[in-house]
Write a structure and sequence with these properties.
By secondary structure, the protein is mainly alpha-helical. Among the domains are: 59-95; 98-149, no CATH class. The chain is 73% helix and 0% strand. The protein is extended.
Length: 150
């Protein structure tokens, strides 16, 4: 309560919503200008970027570039923030005087780190590469593992 005031919390929530809505809107505007041809079935569990890009008949290079920038900003930016915060946490844990306290702190952090590895690992495999370079089978398998494990 001393650090997270109600006004700061409200500002952070509004910023997250506005950023997400703005990025999604820009993506949808670019997507709506493309034409599709051939089959209209997406071979995936959900309508993801890679299988959707396989259905375009028009040039989607601008959308690919914009997606790469947005994904790099969102995924890698948040990953950097999480890693910096964990480095601070580990620094504090290593400077604890009691070994039993360090053991409890590392045990509490381990499950969260496993979840982070699953989520960020699958996001990087699915989205940080160009959709042209990822096969639909790999994309489907990683998405399935992410859904089942997380």
């Amino acid at each position: 309560a001393a650090v997270m005031k109600r006004q700061l919390c409200t500002h952070l929530v509004v910023a997250a919503w506005v950023t997400g809505f703005t990025l999604s809107s820009y993506h949808l505007v670019l997507l709506s200008k493309l034409t599709f041809c051939g089959p209209n079935k997406v071979h995936h569990f959900f309508c993801d970027n890679s299988p959707l890009f396989k259905l375009f008949s028009s040039d989607a290079s601008l959308l690919w570039k914009v997606d790469s920038i947005f994904i790099s900003f969102a995924v890698l930016g948040s990953l950097c923030l999480v890693l910096v915060s964990y480095m601070c946490i580990f620094h504090c844990i290593l400077h604890m005087p009691a070994a039993s306290g360090r053991k409890k702190a590392f045990a509490a952090c381990s499950s969260h780190l496993i979840n982070l590895a699953i989520v960020y690992g699958s996001c990087i495999v699915l989205y940080a590469q160009s959709s042209k370079d990822v096969s639909l089978e790999t994309n489907t398998t990683v998405a399935l593992l992410n859904t089942v494990l997380y």
